[in-house]
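Pilot study result, target chain (454 residues):
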Amino acid sequence: MVLEKLGSVLRKTTDKIANAVFLDKNLVDGIVKDLQRSLIEADVNVGLVMELSKKIKQAAVDERLKGVEKKEHIIKLLHDEIVMILGKKRDLVLGKWDVFLLVGLYGAGKTTTIGKLATYYSKRGKKVCAVGLDVHRPAAPEQLKQICDKAKIDCFIDAGEKDPLKIWKKFENEFKKYSLVIVDSAGRDALDKELISEIKKIAKVVKATESFLVMQADIGQAAKEQARAFKDAAGVTGVIITRMDSTAKAGGALTACAEVEAPVVFIGTGETPADLETFDPESFLSRLLGMGDLKTLMEKIHSVMDEKEIQRQQEKLQSGKFTLRDLQTQLEGMEGLGSMDKVLGMIPGLGKVKDKIGEGALEGQQAKVKKWKHAINSMTEEEIENPEILEKQTSRIQRIAKGAGCSTSDIRMLIKQWKMLKEMIKSQGAMIGGKMDQKMIMKLARKFGRKMRM
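Predicted structure:
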């Protein structure tokens, strides 16, 4: 996960403070130095880092606070200051008809982000389409069309037209059939007068309800000037940061946007359509601290399974019938959620477990899941509907293993995990339905953390 090193230092820092018998000067100085190093490596503004360091040192020598109270105060101070550095959360409330205009420089990932946004909102019941108004970059309309086809949303382009406003006017009546229209605009190497003029004209004609600046995380602190310039010149209402999975400098981009009050609305965390998350500073910090992020996990589930499929799964679970075919659907959904590392990091209680397991073991588990899918495809309908018969008739296990190109132990592990996942998915159903309190979630996390075999 992005900023993993910073997350590790934050976790160690809170543990050191909580477990310390005395908060002496040497301990506090060591903690502050580790924090300074990791925050600066994450490209957080040096001035903000020094300000945070000063506040922690002042809290440590505050004579009004003693013992446990002082330790709790410093941990809360650290949490609140990091959240403030990351910025305020901005909730998007969509109406009956909305237009998102995406702006940014060349190579920021605007077109790819359109596919992710389209997937995000279409899975949530919106009728989405996209329109290509980038008339400068070669093959931009064709790329947008390919991405939209993959996301299974309608796309309106005119590769021969060089006036973006004429393209909009050409399809304007069609857009009334949709509840969300996402507009792709042209980029430049830098924010110049020509680009500002074009963005303003497009925004006025399309009546954009939201104008999002798309920029990549690896530009670090340079994000501050870019966010400020686009906000002042083009009236952007929010920022989408891409490539959050591939850089340690994402801290710079996040905190820079907060400094100029250009709220980060979404972050891109990978290549798949489901790798788009709403940005919530509290949830983001919770994941960095290894405390999980169930809210984002539930969002991801909704991004790979639409409302109807979730409802169908819920009805099956409530009836008490859960087959290997249902498990296969769940496994395919898990693949859409991203790597096992990402998923575990979002489950309370398992964030630290994944560090102990190791990356190699997690990759091995993902390979095992692929074998399970092949094994299920090698079964008869009777075996899929009633997996218990496999334990009674071992010859069936041998036949399935041979057909799937795996070992009999793989099949036995599949059956074992099916029994566990049946219970786990029932719990997941309760989480989606809002029927489970935090205490029950933590209990289940500990339970399945012990059971999960890597």
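One observation from the pilot: The two ends are 19 Å apart (CA to CA). A full batch analysis is planned for the follow-on phase.
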